[in-house]
Structure formats: C-alpha cells, structure tokens
Amino acid sequence: MLADMDIEIYELLEKAFDEFKGALVVDRNSRIVLLTRGYAEILGVDRKEAIGKPVTEVIPHSRMSEVLKSGEPEIAQVWEVKGETAIISRVPIKRGEEVIGVVAFSVFRGMDEVRDFLGRLRYLDAELNYYRSEVEKLRGARFSLENILGISPAINRVKEQLACIAKNDSTLLLTGETGTGKELFAHALHLSSKRRFGHLIKVNCAAIPDELLESELFGYEEGAFTGARKGGKPGKFELANRGTLFLDEIGEMPARLQAKLLRVLQDGEIERIGGTEPLQVDVRIVAATNKNLAELVRHRQFREDLYYRLNVIELHIPPLRERMEDIPCLVVHFIRELNHRLGVKVKGITPEVEEVFQSYHWPGNVRELYNVLERTMNVIQRDVIGLADINWFLPRVLSSSGRQTSRSSNTLRNLEAKIIHRVLESCNGNKSRAAEILGIHRSTIYNKLKRNNG
C-alpha cells in the first residue's frame, strides 16, 4: 500500500499537518495512509483503525476519489460533517504526470478562524484601496467616472463613450463650451485607462506666457539660457511618461509650438531646449478646447496637420442647457461640498429657485451654477435658499429669458412676473428701484406685468 510513497514522507506530512484541525492522505487506491488527530476526532473514528481502509468507508461522501481521477485540485471547498463546518482543500500528489495520492487539509482550526481571516482580508482590502486612492491623488488625477454627476441621456451617453475610449491609447480631443467640465472628463479618462498608475500632467496652454510654454512642455538642459536651473529641468512630456498629458485650451498654443507638438505625436520624441539628443516618451495626449478648431484651421490660425493628429477621437461635452434634468443632483452635490468648504449648513433650495435655475440658459454651464451657489451661500442667513437670496442673480435670468426656446412662452412669462413681483416686494413696491435692480427700464416692468395680467 505504501510502495508508491516513502514512509518518511508520510511521517513528515503527519508532523506538518498535526497542528491543523483536519488533514488526511489517501494513496492511488483511495485508501487512507495518514489521518491527523483533529480529523479523527471530527469523524469520531480511531486513527489506527482508519489507516488502510478505503476512504469512503470512513467518510461516505468523500470527494478524494474524484480528485484522484481528475488530477485537478479542489481549493477552499466548504465541507460539513457531524455538525462541523470546515474549509477544505484537496490536492493531488503527483509523480511526474501520474497521480499517486491525494492530500486533503484545512488551514483553519474552525469557522471562527475563517471569520477572523475574512475580517483581516476586508481590513487589508480597505487599506489597499485607501493607499491606492492616495497614490492616485499624488499622480495628479482626482476624479473618476463616478464623480461625473447626472441622470440625463446626454451625460450618460458621454460617460459610456469615455469608458470605451479609455481602453485604448488614441489621442483624444475634448470639445465643449467653457465651464462644461472638460478637465473632469480628462481625469476620469486617465483613471479608467491602463495608464492610471502613471501621472496625469495638466498644462493650460492659455495660462502660460508663450515664451515660457516651450520650456514647460519640453524642458531644458543646463545652460540652455540665462537663468536656466543647474542640471536642467524635465518638461511636462517627460513627467507624463507612461501616463497622460492633458493640454487644456489647445487652440491658444502658438504656431511655433504646434510644429513641435506635431513631431511628438508623429515620432514619440521630444528634445529639450539646449539639448542635442532626442528623448523617447510614451504619453497619451488628451487635448481640450472651447473653440472651433476646424474654423481656426480655415483661418490659418491652427495647423491643419496637427488638427487631424489631435482629432483622432473627438468627445463633445454637452452644455448644461442640454442636460437640465441634471441640475437637481448637481445642486445637491454642490451644496454638500460648499457646506463643508464654507462651514455653513444649507439644506437645499426652494421650488421657486429650482424653477429659476431650470429656466436659465447657463452660458457659463456647470461652473456658473457652482459659482451662483457659492456666492449665495457666502451671505445666506437661513438654511434653505429662496428667491430673496438670489436677488442679485434674477436680472441675469430675466435678461436671458427672451433667448429661451426649450420652454413655453406662458411658462417664461409667468417666471418673469414671479421674478418682478419678488424684486418689487424687496423694494416695497418701488418700481424705479426694482427696474434698477433688474437692469431694465421702468416701462418694461409695467409692460411685462400688464402682459402677464392681461
């Protein structure tokens, strides 16, 4: 019975598994050749009597024979016998390709140990997630797809497209009006891509003077110019190596640098100012603009060849007026964020304020909505934002109401009247003062009220 395996091996196995609650070994004929004390106690059998018996005589529903036949291990299986539950692994013992036995064992002495182990795993998983988020912060990206809020079909469609685009390395051009959140989408793309463990480096091409932008992007060697740092300085392309470079306001890039950027996109090479050797860089480019680059190309203000290199994939971020159903959830999120930032306790907005927000065309988009709430919450003295708290904003809404096309004229007239009445109340009925606050002529107030009452 023991011809296929050395007696010494069994003795070593017995000593090794003696500390475990359950361990046994069967030979090629499914006969028990090793049984630990703990295992025997669970089964309620005498160890000496069990040795040499077919395993199914001692354990009627044993799966040891199945593992002998398949030669495949069964890891961490739940096993119950006589009211005891254990996590058992069954592993074939092989000599070459031949299965000559099976060892079954549990690394836990009982389910309490299993629960303790799972608790430690959950703690380690939480700790790992914490450190992963900290690393991501250090690497420059702070917002994931989950941070892009909204329930509208328009925003969900863009999020779905972004998730697909993140799977590849193609250059991406983000387009959209000012304040739509293009940088937020660049962050989300980076964190959804295989480059998420690299850096996300951001450059605003409109914010850096032309004479400094080249050194910021491409770096410089020591002595390249007066005032150059000793040892030189790496540029943004080098810092973004194996990561993502976000070029915001790309339409503002000077023509001279457009040519250098084109070379990077074509050859994957940069050259520091004052350098003599090209440097290979592995960078994904994400560019963003609120301008019509095709129009700039037609007016020779942007290189056509660079435009086509950047516009491999274009993702248009919709303006807020095309996703008005997202305003309520954005307001809730911004109020929560501003409460924390400003140390206030605003609970929300009144239905009248929500109606105003839904009727406004938001030329500054999500950023304008945030700014309106921030300004209001800086001076509010109550816990709910009402019309009286946004008096300063109402003239802006009133002056834009004539440009609305998405709501009925009756709804807009009612809103105008409501705003005028609200301002008149705050001025104790003084129409001249109300006209001054609203930025309209006094006669306009009479005409709008007359039309609404008529």
From TrEMBL:
SUPFAM superfamilies: Homeodomain-like (SSF46689), P-loop containing nucleoside triphosphate hydrolases (SSF52540), PYP-like sensor domain (PAS domain) (SSF55785). It comes from the Bacteria. Residues 24-59 form the PAS domain. This is PAS modulated sigma54 specific transcriptional regulator, Fis family. The keyword Nucleotide-binding applies. InterPro entries: AAA+_ATPase (IPR003593), AAA_lid_NorR (IPR058031), Homeodomain-like_sf (IPR009057), HTH_Fis (IPR002197), P-loop_NTPase (IPR027417), PAS (IPR000014), PAS-like_dom_sf (IPR035965), PAS_fold (IPR013767). Keywords: ATP-binding, Nucleotide-binding, Transcription, Transcription regulation. One of its GO terms (biological process) is regulation of DNA-templated transcription. The keyword Transcription applies. GO terms for molecular function: ATP binding; sequence-specific DNA binding. PROSITE patterns: PAS, SIGMA54_INTERACT_1, SIGMA54_INTERACT_3, SIGMA54_INTERACT_4. SMART domains: AAA. Residues 148-378 form the Sigma-54 factor interaction domain.
